[in-house]
Every structure is written in structure tokens, then in C-alpha cells.
């Protein structure tokens, strides 16, 4: 299996190179050359099977000549990071209505599912190549901890995460700073999240530093993150429908990475029914599916901050398919977005998109009401992102449809919003209950490029003889 860029002008790469490359050199995103399929018999063999077994079978066609046994061992390591044996357990809410809990990972949100695999995989591949990298990232609070948990104690990786001092929630800060690992470095910047992002951009733009530190990123557009998420769609669809009955999914969406994984599962021939894209007030995806116009707007702060985005980066992967895999056409539209703030597709293309996805935008009041209703009707506490999904599913589900709503975060991660909506403050799960009493590890630095650069170089203490770039930056 080889991978091509959505913009058509980057080298064709194999699985391992795509893992290390992240973004394609033409600015595009990597996707498989063709969608592999699982036959009816292959699917039947996976019905009600263990998560690890489904993961092996679903990912196998994508890993090319990467050793399948070695990949299987990495799946086991990733799964072991979850507090629930089935990684993504299903809970029934009513006839045909299900919740898939994706928050049993170390940082209590669904991004752990992919990052817990990427961390060991990255480390394993680098070690085999005799290479080490420095990962630098900036976070407004949410993804930083998932990246740190994925990379902690990995020998081939040093990770530095910048966050704006005093501007992330207490639990977000504690989830990052209480990690006690020699290769994990938290930097609190005296500034805003935008300052952190600007610093990151400058660090990556500094050729000399990039080489000396062997800079890398585990960002949201890495193909392997999407791949890891395909597994739970397959697992749920085969558990609830077998290969013969379609199962629909309702997905709280922001960057479109999660629901795109559902689309991949459908392309593979798995029994996926409708894919519902649930957004909060930041509804660029919903507006696109309504009108065919993809137009940037302002970002609104909501109770579901992990979906407060302006551009859905993974959406480019769908565009590539919608435009018959014409990389130049994709590059043209993305160019229009940068220069004109948006683009519009033809009625034929929008019809294709609507054949794959249905959408609904949920207001702040509806989100709070959905949290309250989940308690009243089902006796369960859900986080605001999950509530957006439940509200969309309630509005869009059809009679007789089997509908799985994805629970993307644990309620304790967004305790303020949950308490405001339900009157009850959700507690952290037992393994994190003592979080506030753990020692914190963090350096506070000025919003100053020289200071941050010197800080990183001093800690990686690495001679610059490792500087040769390979084909995979
Ligand atoms: C990242 C995130 C989302 C959005 O997922 P996308 O893949 O960006 O669409 C939803 N809920 C939570 C809790 C998240 O952390």
C-alpha cells in the first residue's frame, strides 16, 4: 500500500515514510492510493471479536510491507493504555440508540485512541532506524496532554509542549505537568496561545535549529491517526450489525478527523450506514453540507472547546475523493480558501458529499439541555462534546436506524460545563483522583524565541552531527 498527496505533487510514500512525514511536501495530506476492502467473509470472522483482533485485521491492508506481527505488538501496547479492556466499549441508551465510550485513555478524550498507538509506533520505527527526534508542539490545553502521554518514556523521542501560562484549565495543566518522565518537557510561556503558536512556527522555520534538534511533530493531519480511529467504527458496526445490517454513527466534529475515519470504514465495505456530522456553533462543516460553500468565519468560544475550529484540516482528504482524486483541483480550492476566505463546489460535488454525510449544528443552549436530558432520561453524565452528538442524533435519527453516538471526552474533563448544566460535578476516574496532589514539572519562559530555542537545545544536549536529513523530514 502506497500513499499519495491530496495535492498531487509530493512523492508517493510507503506506510512508514507517511508516518514520519506527517504533512506532504506539497502542503497536502497523505491518503492511500486506493481504499482497500474487507470481504463479507473477512468481516464475518471479526463479528464480536476482541478489539485488538479487529484492529489487526482492519489496519493490515494499510501497513504495506511493515511487519504485521510487529504492528500487532504495537496495537497491544496501545490498547494497554486504556482503563477499559475493550478500549471503546458500547453502552445502550434505548432501542437502536448506543453510546461508544472513547474516553478511557490516559487523558480522558478520544484522541488517546490514535496517539497511544502513534507514540510507540513512532518510537519503534525511529529506534530501528537508529534515529531520535525532538517533538515540539503548542497547545491551548487539550491535545498537549494526549501527545505527552503518547511520548512519555519513549527512548527515541524528546517532547516539548508549550502552553500559555495561566491560560489553560487546572486539569489541563495538571494532566501535562504531573507527567514525571525524563523526556517530557513542559514550557509555560508568558503569553497567549497565539504567542505559543507563533513561537512554534518560528522554531520550525529556523532551518539550522530544525536540523540540530531533528524537529518533528505528531500533528492532527498524520494519516496514522485517522487509521487508528477506523478500528472502533469497524468494531462497533460488526458488534451491532454484523456485516448485514448497517449501523449509523453520530460524531461530534471539529477537524473532521474522527468522522473521516468513519468514512474510511465505509469505503472498506464495512456495514456503516449514515455518518452524522455534529458541530457546535462553529459550523463550517454543516454550512458546507447545506450550501456547498466552504467559508471561513470567526471562531466562537463554546462549552465544547475541542470543536472550536475555523478550518477543518482533515476535510481536505474528503475533498480529494469528492473531486475524483484530482490533486490540482484540490490545491486550487485550498488556494482560494487562503486568498479569498472560502470556495464553493458544484451541485454535483455537493450531492456526492451529501450522499456520504448528514449534518446538524447544535447551539449552546441545546448542548446544556442535552447534558441535563442525558441525566434525566438515561442516568448518565456526558461531557459537552458528547452532548452535541446526542442532540444531533436525537434530531436526525430515523425510525429503526441503529445509531451510535461517539462519546469523545470524559465528563470530568469539562466539569464546569457539566456542573452548570446538570447541577452535579463529575468526579475524575480513580486513577486520576489524586492528580492535584502530584508534583508538577514545568519551566516558565518569556515569550521570546531565543530563550525557548536555547532552552530546548540545552535539554536535548545533542551534538549536531545527527543533522543529516533523511527523505522523511
Ligand atoms: C478533538 C475532539 C473532537 C473533534 O474531533 P475531530 O477529529 O477534530 O473532528 C471532539 N471532541 C473532543 C473531546 C475532542 O478532543
Overview features:
473 residues, alpha/beta, Rossmann fold, six-stranded mixed beta sheet, five-stranded parallel beta sheet, 16 strands, 16% strand, disordered C terminus
Overview of the molecule:
It is built from 19 helices and 16 strands. The chain has helices spanning 15-21, 40-44, 51-59, 68-80, 111-129, 143-151, 170-177, 193-205, 207-213, 223-240, 257-267, 284-291, 315-322, 327-340, 347-356, 364-378, 384-396, 415-422, 449-460; strands spanning 2-5, 13-14, 30-32, 90-94, 97-101, 133-138, 157-164, 184-190, 215-216, 247-252, 272-279, 293-295, 342-344, 357-361, 403-407, 443-446. Strands 4-5-15-10-11-14 form a six-stranded mixed beta sheet, sandwiched between helices. Strands 9-6-7-8-16 form a five-stranded parallel beta sheet, sandwiched between helices. Helix 10 packs across helix 11 and helix 16 (364-378) crosses helix 17. The longest helix has 19 residues, at 111-129. It binds pyridoxal-5'-phosphate (PLP). Pyridoxal-5'-phosphate (PLP) binds at residues 109-111, 142, 252-258, 306-307, 385, 408-409.
